[in-house]
Amino acid sequence: MTAYDLSKLPVTLDDVRAAAATIQGVVLETACNQSRTLGEICKCNLWLKFENLQFTSSFKDRGALNRLNALTAEQRPRGVIAMSAGNHAQGVAYNARRLGIPATIVMPVGTPMVKVENTRRHGAEVIISGTNLEEAGAFARSHGAAHGMTLIHPYDDPLIIAGQGTVALEMLAAVPELDTLVVPIGGGGLISGIAVVARALKPSVRIIGVQAELYPSMYNAISGRDLPMRGDTLAEGIAVKSPGRITTEIIRHLVDDILLVTEPQIEQALATLISIEKTVVEGAGAAGLAAVLANPSEFAGRHVGLVLSGGNIDTRLIASVLTRELAREGRLTQLTIDIVDRPGQLAAVSSLLGDAGANIIEVSHQRTFSVLPAKATLLELVIETRDQAHLNDVMAKLAAANFKARCT
């Protein structure tokens, strides 16, 4: 990354330091702890910044409080409006209530219910409108203008960016040896603030952004590509189709690279953080680790700081991700076995699986809705094994006993 005159940018280190003074004592200075186990897995020295432990479970508290605090005496009683898929909503709602400012939040259809309910719990009026953040934003602008409200943009605002940049002030103060920062990108507010601080305090630091492969908006803007944006991503917090004008300018000049991660990679990272660090993150919060796990040569031997940007995720979705990860690891498998419909066959299969060390989780017979002959039945099992090698051994033992088994 070539040197750039930081004074030309719309956000400076002094702006971030001013934001730090504004939010001090209200927003948590979250831990930035080394993960030795994850570091061994990733072949690097790895530190985690636990922004998922903020009061609203996201770094968004920082920028929201900094922006709200700058409202004039005339603006405050008229209230504010924001569009958000969840975390910005909660940051604005919580801090607006603390400051006595009425807040309205526009959330797109499909926003996880945990984020909708948490936003309402913080006292904001919630309006569900639009199929994505951009459509929600269009409604927020028109509704806000009609009612004299101030729009609190989730990322394309210098005061928001400065607030988010306080994350980097804390990380570099806690771990001065960091030489790489890995940050999720939605609209770009977090990585823009972090980049401003890092380039000013330690210009040699590598700054790597991460986006979900399904929503590579900032990647397209910076690289000149036109990759499609579509579908449902686990990382809905960074599923932004239109990156910010201010954030794009900062990222173009200060960020070294943007990596894309797939849905299975995000799921694996989320499950890994729960399993190893015993910390719950949402999809966007797991994106940084997903990038490191998927690109080991990029980070090998380096001192890497990851921002766990948020932890707002439905418990049902957590259960689904963990179960799917068990299946990918060969630890949970659904089998179908064609057996002769006579006494003793189920017992024989159960005995074989028990002797092989597999645990039967679920079992069912299917006699009616099957293409098998009338004297045969379809046995459906869900089994638990230690790993893929153990599963392969179980399948081999079933085949040796002349049971026609297949994973489904």
UniProtKB/TrEMBL annotation:
One of its GO terms (molecular function) is threonine deaminase activity. Its EC number is 4.3.1.17, 4.3.1.19. Transmembrane segments: none annotated. It catalyses: L-serine = pyruvate + NH4(+). InterPro entries: ACT-like_dom_sf (IPR045865), ACT_dom (IPR002912), ACT_ThrD-II-like (IPR044561), Ser/Thr_Dehydratase (IPR050147), Ser/Thr_deHydtase_PyrdxlP-BS (IPR000634), Thr_deHydtase_catblc (IPR005789), TrpB-like_PALP (IPR001926), TrpB-like_PALP_sf (IPR036052). Pathway: Amino-acid biosynthesis; L-isoleucine biosynthesis; 2-oxobutanoate from L-threonine: step 1/1. Residues 334-408 form the ACT domain. It comes from the Bacteria. The keyword Transmembrane helix does not apply. Keywords: Amino-acid biosynthesis, Branched-chain amino acid biosynthesis, Isoleucine biosynthesis, Lyase, Pyridoxal phosphate. Signal peptide: none annotated. Its cofactor is pyridoxal 5'-phosphate. NCBIfam families: ilvA_1Cterm (TIGR01127), PRK07334.1 (NF005600). Catalyzes the anaerobic formation of alpha-ketobutyrate and ammonia from threonine in a two-step reaction. The first step involved a dehydration of threonine and a production of enamine intermediates (aminocrotonate), which tautomerizes to its imine form (iminobutyrate). Both intermediates are unstable and short-lived. The second step is the nonenzymatic hydrolysis of the enamine/imine intermediates to form 2-ketobutyrate and free ammonia. In the low water environment of the cell, the second step is accelerated by RidA. Belongs to the serine/threonine dehydratase family. This is L-serine dehydratase. It comes from Bradyrhizobium denitrificans.
